[in-house]
Amino acid sequence: MSTKQPSPHSPARFVLRRPTPPGSMIPPRTHATGTNYDTSFSRKESVRRVRAFLLDSAIAPLTRRVTRPTVINTSVLDTLERPIIFVANHQSHLDTPLILAVLPPKLRHHTVVGAGADFFFDRRTKGFFSSTLLGAIPIDRVRPSRASAELATQLLEEEWNLVLFPEGGRTPDGLAQELKSGAAQMAIKTGRPVVPLFIDGTYEIYGKASDRIHPGSTTVIIGEPLVPREAERVSALNDRITQALGVLGREAATDFFTARQPGRALSFPAPSRSWVEAWQTSEHRHQHEEPRKWPKMFGSRHSGK
C-alpha cells in the first residue's frame, strides 16, 4: 500500500521542507584557483624530493641545453644565508627554470617562485604542475593582494628563498618595463636582502611573441645584495633595485666598467619603444643557432649578421 505524500501547499510540507535563503544571501561558489590556490602540498618533504630530482635530472639540464647560460658573479651566492629575495627582469617563460638552473643546489631546493595568479593558477591543473615542478606560488600582479603578501612573508620567515619578477609580466618587445614595489615591500617587512639578477637572451629564445623555442645563448648577471636600510621607505629601496638592475642590464650589453659610468645604466622603463633606436644603441653579442633575419630589440644580446 502506497503512502500518500503531503500536498506541496500543505502545512506538513512547509514544516518538513528545508528552508531556502534568499538568493542574495547565498555565498558564491569559489574555486581554489588564482591567489586562493593552496600550494602548501608542494612544500611537503615528499613533494620537495620529487621536485629536487626532476630539477636536477631533467629541468635544469634541459634548460641549460636550450639557453647555454653564462653566469657572472656567482661568488655573491657563496656568502649569503637564507632566506634571499631574488629579483629579476622578465623576458620569457624560460626565466624561471633558468634562474633555478643557475642557482646552486643548496639554494635551488629551498626556493619558491612568485608566478602570476591569473595565468599559472587560473586552473587547478596548471597550479598543480607549476607549484610541483617549479615551487611556484600565486602572486596577484594586477592589484595589491593581502593573500599574496602574507604567503610570501610567511615563506620568507620559514627561510624559503623567494624569486620575484617586479616588472609584473614578460616584456612584450624586449625592452625594460617599470618595476612594481612588491619586492621592496617584502624586503623591508622581513629585513632580508634583495639580490638583483639580470637575464639577457631569453627574449630571443622564447619571447612573448614567439611561437616556438629558438635555442641560443644567455647571460645571467648576479648583482650585489641590497640590504634594507634603517627606516628606508619602500619607494627608496625600489629605486635602488631599479638602479641595480639597470646597471646589470647595461653590463650585459657592454662591460663591467662601461655600465657603471654615470648615465649609462639601462632605464626602467625604457625611454623609447622604438626598435630602431633600441637596435642602434645596443652592443649585443648573443646569437641563435640559426641566422636571425631581423634586428633584435634591447634587452637581450643578439643581433643578426
Care to describe what's here?
By secondary structure, the protein is an alpha/beta fold. The chain has a single domain (39-274), classed as Glycerol-3-phosphate (1)-acyltransferase (3-Layer(aba) Sandwich). Helices cover 38% and strands 11% of the residues. It is built from 13 helices and seven strands. The chain has a seven-stranded mixed sheet with strand order 1-7-6-2-5-3-4, sandwiched between helices. The longest helix is centred in the first third of the chain and has 23 residues, at 45-67. The termini are far apart. The model is unreliable at 287-305 (pLDDT under 50).
Rg is: 24 Å
User: Strand content of the residues, in percent?
Assistant: 5-15%
- Quickly give the structural class: alpha/beta
| Fraction of residues in H or I helices | 25-40%
What is the helix/strand order?
HHEHEHHEHHEHEHEHEHHH
Describe, in short, the structure shown:
With 305 residues, the protein is of the alpha/beta class.
Question: Keywords, please?
Answer:
305 residues; Glycerol-3-phosphate (1)-acyltransferase; 7-stranded mixed β-sheet; alpha/beta; globular
Structural topology:
Elements: H1 11-16, H2 45-67, E1 69-72, H3 75-78, E2 85-88, H4 95-102, H5 105-108, E3 111-116, H6 117-120, H7 124-134, E4 136-139, H8 146-157, E5 161-164, H9 182-190, E6 194-200, H10 202-206, E7 218-222, H11 234-253, H12 256-259, H13 275-280
Parallel strand pairs: 1-7, 2-5, 2-6, 3-4, 3-5
Antiparallel strand pairs: 6-7
Helix pairs in contact: 2-4, 8-9, 9-11
